[in-house]
Amino acid sequence: MRRRTLQLAVFLSLILLACACGGVRSAILPASRTGNGSWIASDATSVVFAQLVEAKDGTLSGSANYVQAVTTDTGDPLQQINLSVSGVRRDDALSLTLNAGLGVTQTWTGKLTGSGLALQIPQQDGSLMPVTLRPGTSANYNDAVARLRGAVIQQRQDRARVQQKQQAEQQQQQAAADLATAQTALTNAVQQVTKDLPGLAAQQQLPGKLQALNAALAHESVDYNAAKAQAGPSADCTAISDSITKVSDAESGVSDATSALSSASGDVSSAASSVKNDVDSARQAIQDVQQKGGQASPMDAQQIDQADKAQQTASAAADTARSQSQDLYSQGNSIYGNASGLASDCNTAG
């Protein structure tokens, strides 16, 4: 309740602040220099309309309507407050007391002039502000309120248009920034493809290492065949053992060649995987650019496609080499197992 009372007190101190520059003139003037009649003042933000009746003894009574523009952009564009007015006139001197309810009142003094009610309104700093209410009718009041309502609505619409324009500009700026970010990401993705692509050159080592494995296996086969030729009922176990030692040495060569081929295959697979990830990232970057209204360079798209084909070729070569190394290594193990069997048979026979 104290807050509401304070608001009303402040309101009474400000109620005609904006009306000091004059009001709406009317062709209807009071019949005599009395307080009788309707009085109006208005400006760009408010309208006040007072209706007063003067008794024979000079006492005044009536009401006042105060309409103020609402500064927010939602709800009713105008706020209205109704006041009761009492007072007294002595010759041209006036004293009016405005009552806002809840015991909140304020007294204004002034005089009756040929053009209206010239009042002195107390301010919060103790000074007096002159305000003149001029004769007016209910129609004048309604017109003034309608104009004020229209002006407030127009101001709201103007602010809304400005806000929409600002939002559109912000969206455009954000879209441009997002596109620039996406284009930068695409550039970085293409550069990463270019950076990792040379790693696929490791596949060029695969044929040579496969050839070395085949040679080691062939050497093991030759040594095994030599040991096998020495086998029989009258075999020299010592000679067979020497031949099997050669087979074992050749098997070590097969194992080393297999490891070298497997390692090279792993390097190629790792490089191909990196390039594939780069390609996927670059293609996603192209989609991002397109979704944000941009276009990727045809050269970038072509480079990405070529890199994708290159990594697929390298990956397939690595898989093939890995499979061949496993197969050849198994053959070498089998030969070595057979050679060990020759030694065992010879020792048993002996």
Notes on the protein architecture:
- By secondary structure, the chain is an alpha+beta fold.
- The protein has two domains: 2-148, Lipocalin (Beta Barrel); 170-349, no CATH class.
- It has five helices and eight strands; from the N terminus they run αββββββββαααα.
- Strands 1-2-3-4-5-6-7-8 form an eight-stranded antiparallel β-barrel.
- A hairpin with a 5-residue loop joins strand 7 and strand 8 (128-135).
- Helix 4 packs antiparallel against helix 5 (298-349).
- The relative contact order is 0.10.
User: How do the helices and strands follow one another from N- to C-terminus?
Assistant: HEEEEEEEEHHHH
Span between N and C termini?
123 Å
**Strand order across the largest sheet:** 1-2-3-4-5-6-7-8
Number of domains: 2
Shape: rod-shaped
Low-confidence stretches: 1-32
The radius of gyration computed from the alpha-carbon positions, rounded to a whole number of angstroms, is 52 Å
Number of strands: 8
Kindly state the percentage of residues in helix: 55-70%
Would you tell me the structural class of the helices and strands? alpha+beta
Q: What do the pLDDT scores average to?
A: 85
Determine the number of helices (DSSP H or I, runs of at least 4 residues).
Answer: 5
